[in-house]
Write a structure and sequence with these properties.
This protein has 409 residues and is an alpha/beta fold. The chain has helices spanning 22-28, 44-64, 78-100, 117-128, 147-156, 179-188, 208-211, 260-274, 277-298, 329-339, 358-362, 368-371, 385-405, and strands at 10-11, 72-75, 108-112, 133-137, 161-165, 193-196, 215-219, 230-234, 302-304, 319-324, 341-342, 374-378. The chain binds pyridoxal-5'-phosphate. Pyridoxal-5'-phosphate binds next to helix 3.
Length: 409
């Protein structure tokens, strides 16, 4: 007889969110009770909170390779950090140009076609408001932004680009971009560079100085920290106006009484994710590759999306993503759920829409018999060999079943 433990439900949607780790929860508890002060005050209750906040900021800076704790700005997560840096960089550009010219050029923002919606929808909003025009760099068939495309875009808009923003790792296909090289090119043109590192931090090594970026976004809940907390790294010397006006928190750059419990949980989760990272990457990548092989070998007309190489500088260790011919992705995810697997199709934020994912389209997959059948499995860092065995069995079976049921597409 099959028991619960013989047939466990497997959560393979870690790119959407991860469960809070016990270490992170433990680190939050003091701030949900005893240490309740507002760090902005003068009395001892406030001073205790301010002291804890300073410690948290210093640890976050260290974990990211930042030069100074003053470069770390706490936010409510990846979406806020992304919106802040885009709007802030455009504002900064306009301020600089109205100061020394009678007419200010219309600013451009250069980004990629495969960014998260936090970047893409903010660009669309700024275009709609007439604030800036976005240039979306194409990607190759594996999802890499080509250096020459960035070079060409910047040369065509010399003196008009407020910011280049390219994600470090893609959330749908796991492709890792060559941020170091792209940032170098932006800097050659005197343009600041931001990377959305939300999918990368805690999963591959991320060091702001090694990457050479001016700004970086991250979000705690993608590496076993709490929901609703993240940060924006702003390199000393790259300053942008606030997005959220109000009190003088975060050196006057981001108003709002600090989420100390969240920040403490994020810090503990980040430090814990960095411990043993290299070993975990190797182990998870091997599990991912076993799963990819099992799916490709068992099911005809299924393709891996993203970078096929084993190199963690080119693909996240935890993401296996596919497109399946003549399969409805949403139906597949429903069947997987019934079979005991949590997976995703397209990006979670696009659920409910029946359009193919913008990422899959950018890879050049325009055939609608293929591009509606996207599947993303994002593995847990502590997945066991038997979890992977179960995925290797359930995923192919569900793809075949979904194909049979989608037959009339
Ligand atoms: C999840 C995610 C975000 C949004 O982060 P939130 O903290 O959920 O707002 C932004 N960018 C990428 C690449 C993501 O994966």
């Amino acid at each position: 007889m099959s028991t619960q433990s013989d047939n466990p439900y497997i959560y393979a949607d870690n790119a959407a969110t991860t469960p809070l780790s016990p270490v992170a929860r433990e680190a939050m508890l003091p701030f949900l009770g005893g240490t309740f002060g507002n760090p902005s005050g003068i009395h001892r209750v406030s001073r205790e909170a301010a002291h804890a906040l300073a410690d948290i900021r210093a640890r976050l800076a260290r974990a990211l390779g930042a030069r100074d704790a003053g470069e770390i700005y706490l936010t409510s997560g990846g979406s806020e950090s992304d919106n802040w840096v885009l709007r802030g960089a455009v504002r900064r550009f306009l301020d600089q140009h109205t100061a020394d010219e009678s007419h200010s050029p219309h600013p451009f923002v250069v980004t990629s076609a495969i960014e998260h919606h936090a970047i893409l929808h903010c660009c669309e909003a700024m275009e709609h408001e007439g604030l800036a025009t976005a240039i979306y760099l194409p990607v190759d068939a594996q999802g890499h932004v080509r250096a020459e495309d960035l070079e060409r875009a910047l040369a065509a808009h010399e003196g008009q680009v407020a910011l280049v923003s390219v994600m470090l790792a893609n959330n749908e296909i796991g492709t890792v971009e060559d941020i170091r090289e792209l940032a170098r090119i932006a800097h050659e043109h005197g343009i600041p560079f931001h990377t959305d590192a939300v999918q990368a931090v805690g999963h591959i090594p991320v060091d702001v100085r090694a990457l050479g970026v001016d700004a970086l976004s991250l979000s705690a809940h993608k590496f076993h920290g709490p929901r609703g907390v993240g940060l924006l790294y702003l390199r000393e010397g790259f300053s942008i106006p606030p997005l959220i006006a109000g009190g003088a928190q975060e050196r006057g750059e981001r108003a709002g009484t600090e989420n100390l419990a969240g920040a403490a949980g994020m810090t503990a989760a980040l430090e814990s994710a960095l411990g043993g990272l290299e070993n975990r990457m190797t182990r998870v990548a091997a599990q991912r590759d076993r799963l990819i092989r099992a799916v490709i070998d068992a099911v005809p007309d299924v393709k891996l999306t993203g970078d096929a190489g084993p190199d963690a500088t080119r693909r996240l260790p935890s993401i296996a993503s596919f497109i399946c011919k003549d399969v409805d992705g949403e139906l597949l995810v429903v069947l997987l759920d019934r079979a005991g697997v949590a997976a995703a199709t397209g990006s979670a934020c696009a659920t409910g829409s029946t359009d193919p994912s913008h990422v899959i389209l950018a890879l050049g997959e325009t055939d609608r018999r293929w591009n509606h059948g996207t599947l993303r499995l994002s593995l847990a860092d502590d997945a066991t060999a038997s979890d992977i065995d179960a995925l290797c069995e359930r995923v192919p079976a569900c793809i075949l079943r979904a194909r049979a049921l989608s037959g009339t597409m």
